[in-house]
Design brief:
Elements (H helix, E strand, L loop, with lengths): L4 E2 H8 L3 H9 L6 E2 L5 E3 L1 H15 L4 H10 L2 H40 L6 H13 L2 H4 L3 E5 L2 E10 L3 H14 L8 E6 L10 E8 L11 E5 L2 E7 L4 H13 L4 E3 L6 E6 L10 E11 L1
Antiparallel strand pairs: 1-3, 2-3, 4-9, 5-7, 5-8, 6-7, 6-11, 9-12, 10-12, 11-12
Helix pairs in contact: 3-4, 4-5, 5-6
Length: about 290
């Protein structure tokens, strides 16, 4: 039997405000209808979506990830979202510990200096700049993150600038399959590798897809293994950004490159370019392992 619940009843039953429910609906997580009195009402499918949203928001899962769970209705996608959240928390914890160590070093220096003389603000700032720049490993630009294993659909193109050609069929299929809000896009060089300017090379583009989705015949399927990666946000100079990432990684005392896995470039849609010509932001991922 199909059951519908009015917004005031649902608010009372689940401890959610009407404003919260309207906000979640505006984010596209579910849809309501109206009864004869004009009240918003929610059918069984909407109620399930609301339950999923309420549970995942309690553990601070982002709306876009909640939407991917709702659209896939897949336990494996829920597990992947939770694993991503754990990885994010681990990274945040590592960053907090890093800042704590840096601040502790600064305070120890101040106590030592002030035992002999009073420091001016300018001298304090100079000491801080010197101290924070003195340890390239703790102040470098890369982050070590964990990517989960991902089932992906991919396409490979070869040319003097094959990136758009590689992406087009993947993006078209993802869009037509209503997976655009959930898919992560990754690219990378494949054989023949780039050599000289103007020489054709290979580039593969893939999109993460949930279990149960059939891949069309014009695309191929594989599983990216996931694992530890050194990550750097790329500037417009992608080649220069890769050199920066590898230079900082070469100075890292704990991690080194893992040549058994592919390096990746994550393409993140730039929906508000504000005059910028780039359609995507890029995050660069170099696979790493403990030394």
């Amino acid at each position: 039997m199909n059951r519908s619940v009015a917004i005031n009843q649902l608010s009372e039953q689940m401890g959610l405000t009407s404003r919260t429910l309207r906000h979640w609906e505006s984010e596209g997580l579910f849809k309501s209808s109206r009864d004869t009195s004009g009240w918003r009402i929610y059918d069984e499918n909407a109620l399930l979506c609301i339950r999923i949203t309420a549970v995942l928001r309690k553990i601070d899962i982002p709306i876009k990830d909640i939407k991917s769970v709702i659209e896939s209705q897949s336990p494996s996608r829920l597990i992947a979202v939770i694993e991503n959240k754990i990885s994010t928390l681990k990274l945040q914890r590592a960053e907090i510990l890093l800042f704590e160590r840096q601040l502790d070093r600064v305070l120890k220096l101040f106590h030592k200096k002030n035992s002999d003389c009073f420091l001016s603000l300018d001298e304090i700032l100079t000491e801080m700049e010197d101290l924070l720049m003195s340890n390239p490993e703790e102040n470098n630009m890369i982050k070590v993150v964990t990517l989960p294993p991902m089932r992906v659909a991919y396409n490979i193109a070869i040319g003097v600038s094959p990136e758009d050609e590689a992406m087009a069929p993947v993006l078209d299929w993802i869009t037509s399959s209503s997976l655009l809000g959930t898919a992560r896009f990754f690219g990378g060089n494949v054989k023949p590798l780039p050599s000289h300017p103007g020489t054709p090379y290979g580039y593969g583009m893939c999109a993460a897809i949930p279990d149960g989705v059939d891949v069309p015949s014009h695309l191929q399927e594989m599983v990216l293994p996931g694992g530890l990666y050194a990550m750097l946000e790329s500037s417009d100079d992608i080649g220069g950004s890769w050199k920066t990432l590898m230079r900082h990684l070469s100075q890292h005392r704990k991690y080194k490159s893992d040549r058994s896995r592919l390096c990746l470039e994550e393409h993140i849609r730039n929906d508000n370019p504000d005059g910028c010509e780039s359609k995507y932001y890029l995050n660069l991922f170099e696979p790493v392992e403990v030394k």
